Amino acid sequence: MLSKKMEEALNAQVNAEFWSAYLYLSMPNHFAAAGNQGFANWFSINLSAIINRALFMKYVLSCGGKVTLAPIASVKTEWKSPLEAFEDTLAHERKVTALIHDLCVLADEEKDFGTANMLKWFVDEQIEEEANAQELIDSLKMIKDNGFGLYMLDKELK
What we know:
Layout: H1 4-33, H2 37-51, H3 55-62, H4 82-109, H5 113-143, H6 147-157
Helix pairs in contact: 1-2, 1-4, 2-6, 4-5
């Protein structure tokens, strides 16, 4: 059974995950409209992964808690370049990592071993998410404004 504090914290994470999904829904639409189908595909794949994080809701319910959905704030819808979008992505993933770490600290404080165990998957996942975004940032910085390089990276991501 979850403590009230943990239930509230997990519900806040559910809201954060749906905000992330909304952001990652905005990104592929932006790139698809610009004709960058590869970048759009990369963000669509990440959108699917985030939506699958409904695990938080299932976990709260499986522990006898109540899921409370909150309104989702608006998200950015345009980026000047793929590099800006991926820098925003990395910054966002770092924020999500911090939120997950805060949940881990709370689980430890409350000696909530079940929640701590569930969160381990998310900790590992965030390491991968940040590394993927950083890899693309590094590639985009190397490419700079080279149209052919951007074209090739977009095709690779498709």
